[in-house]
Amino acid sequence: MMAFETNKLAWITGGGSGIGKALATALADLGWHVIISGRTAPKLQALSDNYPLIDYLTLDVTDKDANIGVFDSILTQWGCPSLVVLNAGAYTPMPADHLDLDLIYKLNSVNYLGVMNGLASVLPAMKAQRKGQILLMSSVAGYRGLPDAAPYGATKAALINFAEALHMPLKKEGVLLRVVNPGFVTTELTAQNDFKMPAQISAEQAAEKIIDGLDNDSFEITFPKRFTYILKLLRCLPYSWYFYLITKLTGK
Question: Which position among 56, 91, 143, 152 bears the catalytic label?
Fold first, then answer.
């Protein structure tokens, strides 16, 4: 049983690749009708063509009005989803010796403001019906600062903080707002990393973990726990200990 009332209708942004794609197909295999969104229509259409239960609407999440328009189309054609996964994201490493302001603006626009655009578009309908679950795709990089991940981690930390502030007020209104904090998942984004990624899992495994996590109403879905719980522990350390350990572990 799901921890929330479901009509088995889901909307996933960033649904054309990576975790979004894997989650869309996994839900469709379970009988869900899934609407996927993204900027690249051919990717979305290819997935839709192979899965009768997957439809798509193109979307640039950084466009506030486009988010509203896409969600209005979903409401008109299929009704209000019981599950929304605001998954679209971008990642590029940034070395400490090169402050790339354009990159900082880009990641903030997609990873944080893009999610806010999606959230603002779905909340009125979900609050009106007093039901629904919203997952914000964050990352364990948002727990504490990590070398080469400053602009990315900052956007994910912002998502966690924002969701923490709204989780209980929205829950009282019947809407379950949660964060998903994965460790290293094999995607086009993590392929940019030039280091060994501990406890790395596939996008399909990540999708399974997310679906398993729908069975409760906890604030966070995190995986693989053998890795993410170590980072949770590091989150509790004094700064002097944390910086020492991270320097030893990463060599940076």
Answer: 152
